[in-house]
Structure formats: C-alpha cells, structure tokens
Amino acid sequence: MKKFFLFLIGAVSLIILLANIGPLIGLTISLAIVYFSYRFFQKSESTFGKVAWFIIGGIAATTAIANIPSLIGILALVVLYFIYKKWNNDKPSDQESDDPFDHFEKQWMELK
Known about the structure:
By secondary structure, the protein is mostly helical. It is built from 5 helices and no strands. The chain starts with a helix and ends with a helix. The chain crosses the membrane at residues 7-36, 51-84.
C-alpha cells in the first residue's frame, strides 16, 4: 500500500513537472540573461552601454517574474527526487536484521 501511494504521488508530481517545462525553460533563460546583463553592465564603461544593458536586464527580469509559477515545477521535481530516494531505500519489513542492537530484548532473553 505504501508503494502505491508513493507511485500515486510520483505520478502527480511528474504530470505537474511536465506541465511546467515551458515556464521552467523560460525562467532559466531569462535568469541567465539577467545574470549576463548585470555582468556586462558592470564591465561597461560608456553611459550608452550601461543604459542598454540596464534595459536588457530589466526586460529579462520582468520575464523572469512572469515565470515565477514555474517554481511549482521545481517543487514537483524535488518531490520526485525524494520519492525516488524513498522508493529505493525501502527495506522489506519481514526480513530480520543481524544487528543485535535492533532487537536488544530478544538478544537479552537468548543470553539468559
């Protein structure tokens, strides 16, 4: 039953992630443009260059703000990652471990 719920949550997260691929790409590109325009703004020595890079960075920042809903896609990706880790780390409960500290009472009764 636990695997079923993990699968169900994973499927919903995958659908949300796939629905937000476009905005995620747009956010990535616009943030890259903002970063590079800021770097070129700092390196520019002419006033025209600074104004041009400021305008380009402002337009890219506006585009990045418009793509903020893609953060839901990033959250879905994080949920998928944790579900993947949980799915692979599940140990069957019917197997007993050989570690004596897991079942201290049982080991203590065997010693007596």
